[in-house]
Design brief:
This protein is mainly α and 107 residues long. It is built from four helices and no strands. The protein is elongated, with a radius of gyration of 23 Å.
Length: 107
């Protein structure tokens, strides 16, 4: 016969616990919205440069992230900065040139 362990009731969440949990969720949601906006802006830059559809722009952004092993959000931030400053890390620039057919072609 197996012996049952005594069950300890889980204490109810206090008002302060609820407030802290909701504040944390709110911060996470705000960060998600900011991140999504940067990704959308980067896709817009890619669309303008490569004359692509939104789906193609997303694919280029995702592939650039995967091929450079840099988080997608960070790649998006770098591309948005590029649109503003004209400067882009070499690794990202090479990937975009390759994927968009912007590289110099040797004959």
């Amino acid at each position: 016969m197996t012996q049952k362990l005594p069950q300890h009731p889980v204490p109810p969440e206090t008002s302060m616990d609820t407030v802290l949990r909701l504040e944390d969720e709110n911060l996470q949601l705000k960060e998600a919205v900011r991140s999504h906006a940067v990704v959308d802006q980067a896709i817009g830059v890619i669309l303008a440069v490569g004359q692509l559809t939104p789906d193609q722009g997303w694919d280029v952004l995702r592939s650039t992230s995967q091929n450079t092993n840099i988080k997608l959000r960070h790649v998006a931030e770098l591309i948005v900065d590029w649109a503003r400053t004209g400067q882009l890390p070499t690794e990202i620039c090479s990937q975009l040139e390759q994927q968009l057919g912007l590289g110099r072609r040797r004959e």
